[in-house]
Amino acid sequence: MADTLARFQALFAQDDLSCTVSDALGRSGALGAAFRPVWPGARLMGPAVTVKVFGTDLSAVFDGIAAAGAGSVLVIDSHGVTGSAFWGERTTRAALARGLAGAVIDGGCRDVTAVRTLGFPVFSTAVTPNAGLPGGRGAVNVPVAVGGQPVLPGDLMVADDNGVVCVPQAQIANTLEQVQALLEAERTLLASTADPALLRPEEH
Q1: Does 160 map to a domain?
Q2: What is the total count of domains within the chain?
Q3: What's the domain range around 156?
Q4: Residue 197 is assigned to a structural domain of this protein
Q5: What is the pLDDT of residue 80?
Q6: Residue 182 in domain
Q7: What's the confidence (pLDDT) of residue 188?
Q8: Which of 10, 84, 148, 181 shows the greatest Cβ crowding within 10 Å of its Cβ?
Q9: Distance (Å, rounded) from C-alpha 190 to C-alpha 92?
Q10: Is residue 193 included in any domain, yes or no?
Q11: What is the pTM of this model?
């Protein structure tokens, strides 16, 4: 798996990679359209460490950061809470110290100027000044559902300006092969024609 992830990481700089990954998954896998980068141009890729919060309690977010390995993406399920932030400057600095690759939050983020200045990729469904409060509740590395998409620990998260896509862990190797093939076919097609009939996607 480590080799497969490394080969996927080699595609990290590819523009609009999330679109190709979704295509490779049968035009699926994307989290809801409400997920947007906190700062333009943010992109991330890495295996998920999942967090399920309790109410507005953000204790499990810090627990997740502490449990996450370098290169991981924290995926936070807030059960639709958007009036309190589960991410900000403190979590960003803690995540950077751990070498995390980014965060995906089905909920709010704050301190967006600091997050942008620190260059940490965060995708969220809301931005609010209100902070969550610690209370010692929540869970780490459990199944979650964010943006209508199930996410399990170890699933591969891919995000850019188009949104966020989740690749189930069991499908990572096959999806990588499909993505590589699609990218090559796209390069060949776009270099050879601008004919609208030829550029039309195939029906499935």
Answers
A1: yes
A2: 1
A3: 30-166
A4: no
A5: 86
A6: no
A7: 80
A8: 84
A9: 39
A10: no
A11: 0.91
pLDDT at 204 over 60: no
Pairing of β 149-151 and β 144-146: antiparallel
Q: What is the CATH number of the domain that holds 100?
A: 3.50.30.40
pLDDT for 195 equals 61
Residue 151, strand partner residues:
144
| pLDDT tens per residue across span 78-118 | 988 999 999 999 999 999 999 999 999 999 999 999 999 99
Distance CA 26, CA 113 (A): 36
Q: Which amino acid is at 7?
A: R
* Residue 192 reports pLDDT greater than 90: no
3-state secondary structure the chain: CHHHHHHHHCCCCCCCHHHHHHHHCCCCCECCCCCEECCCCCCEEEEEEEEECECCECHHHHHHHHHCCCCCEEEEECCCCCCCECCCHHHHHHHHHHCCCEEEEEEEECCHHHHHHHCCCEEEEEECCCECECCCCCEECCCEEECCEEECCCCEEEEECCEEEEECHHHHHHHHHHHHHHHHHHHHHHHHCCCHHHHCCCCC
Buried b (16+ CB within 10 A) or exposed e, 185-197: eeeeeeeeeeeee
pLDDT digits (tens, 9 = 90+) for 41-71: 999 999 999 999 999 999 999 999 999 999 9
